[in-house]
Amino acid sequence: MALTGLEIFKLLPKTNCKKCGMPTCLAFAMQLAQKRAKLDDCPCTSEECRQTLAAAAAPPMRLIKFGSGNNQVQVGQETVMYRHEEKFYNPTVMAVSVSDKLSPEALQKRIESINALRFERVGIEIGVKAIAVVNDSGDSEAFVSVATTVKESSNLALILCSGSPEMIAAALAKTADVKPLIVGAKTNTAEAMAKIAKENNCPLAAKASSIEDLVEISEKIKVHGVEDIVLSFEEMTLSEQLRNLTMTRVLSLKKVFRPLGYPTLSILTDGDTDEQAAAATSLICKYCGIVIVDTIEPYAFLPMLTTVMNIYSDPQKPIQVEPKVYKIGEVDESSPFIFTTNFSLTYYTVESDVEASRVPCYILVIDTEGTSVLTAYSGDKLNEKAVADAMSKRSVESLVKHRKLIIPGYVAVMSGKLEEATGWEVMVGPRESSMLPKYLQEVWK
Ligand code: SF4
Q: Which of 82, 330, 406, 437 has a CB 3.0–4.6 Å from the CB of 357, allowing a cystine?
């Protein structure tokens, strides 16, 4: 939590020497509290003051990274309870479990299936980000072997799940270079796990069945020099997990309670595919930073990943596509020319309907700051000048021989002015994009 000017003032030397350019230490403290000055501007601050201010300035929830290179993922450093207050920053990492009891053939098949869990939605690729190797066998050799195979056969970040510090140490001997997340430390293993995590520079998850125990474990881990901590609740029903995750979030963000100032992790191994997908979606909505599921069914991942995508998009910034001319199908100089706005949902709806028409088509996307056709028109972001400027900028006259422009039916009122501004004949298209296939097939013969 940020310190007030008076709290900062108490930490300053109070000599009023003016070396910082301010007439008094109090004036400097006030400027610092408002972030209009830097602590370095005062050459007389003590180490204690620096450390106190640095601790106060630290985010209430720590950013945790695991994985390496292009496969590195990050969770945490969230600042708000509700998305509309600002935005959520680091999307929930979806992970899939892999048991170390699998046969080599079954293991390879499962890894391939997990690697393939990728989808494209509104032009953005979404997918599973990590594989969690679970030490079901209780056997060190099997755990190390499966962890090594996963590391070598997948580009996804690695999570090592075992209650045994010895097993974790053995697996890290082969995989520490990809910086796995270790899951996890309990009350009786916190010290040993923390030592291993520190030696291998890996983040460590604390596991407990209550907030109180989690606080105790996370403090214990921190005392042993591990700063990168993840919090995980175990032996709880879904409703208990959701309640505890919410309380953890409140305590970390609102009360700046440092022992709980870390991202969270949940492991879902019970239930069928549908139940896991439903539970995971609830956990994503209620602040879970990492969710490990057992299912590998693509149909279950699409809603889970779409939920992550939706919740972690910026509510003040609609998802947009690049304003330019898109070619749908094998276009030529006689293909129809239509325009729409750069709001992703609008564009991809129009694109799929044009594809469905099987009429190759040019789509000119106008920059309307990510708003839909009617919103853009109402806000004067979509007018005849914007369309004419976009057509000129994209040199559309060189793409087609005809001079016919199909416009969305909702902005038919623009027709006259648009014809004047562009010199093109305006053809009013359907109001609803879903009518485009019929329209294009009938009108553009
Ligand atoms: Fe006070 Fe430091 Fe500024 Fe001197 S330089 S007036 S000690 S804040």
A: 437
Q: pLDDT-derived band of residue 127, with 50, 70 and 90 as boundaries?
A: very high
- Among 6, 16, 26, 45, the mutation site with the greatest number of ligand 1 atoms within 8 A of its Cβ is 16
Q: Which atom of ligand 1 is nearest to the CA of 25?
A: 1
Amino acid at 323: P
CA of 54 to the centre of ligand 1 (A): 18
Q: What is the pTM of this model?
A: 0.80
Q: Is the CB of 38 under 6 A from ligand 1?
A: no
User: Which has the closest alpha carbon to 234: 258, 260, 200, 270?
Assistant: 270
Please give the number of the atom of ligand 1 that sits closest to the Cα of 45: 2
**Residue 343 DSSP label:** B
Based on the number of CB atoms within 10 Å of its own CB, is 282 exposed (0-12), middle (13-18) or buried (19 or more)?
middle
Rg (CA), the chain: 28
Scanning the structure block, which residue is given the tokens 């409140």? 250
Alpha helices, H only, 201-272: 211-223, 238-253
Structure tokens at 399: 């793409």
The model's confidence at residue 50, banded by pLDDT at 50, 70 and 90, is: confident
Residues 22-32 have a mean pLDDT of 92
Average pLDDT for the chain: 94
User: Residue 340 carries which side chain, given as an amino acid letter?
Assistant: T
pLDDT above 90 as % of the chain: 84
Pair of tokens at residue 330: 């094998």
Query: Who's near 402: CB < 8 A, 6+ residues apart?
Result: 333, 334, 337
Dig out the tokens for 113 from the structure.
């299936």
Integer angstrom CA distances of residue 83 from 18, 285, 353: 43, 10, 32
Phi, psi of 395 (to 5 degrees): 50, 50
Distance in Å, CA 43 to ligand 1 centroid: 7
Phi/psi at 400 (nearest 5 deg)? -130, 155
For residue 188 the two structure tokens come to 């009786």
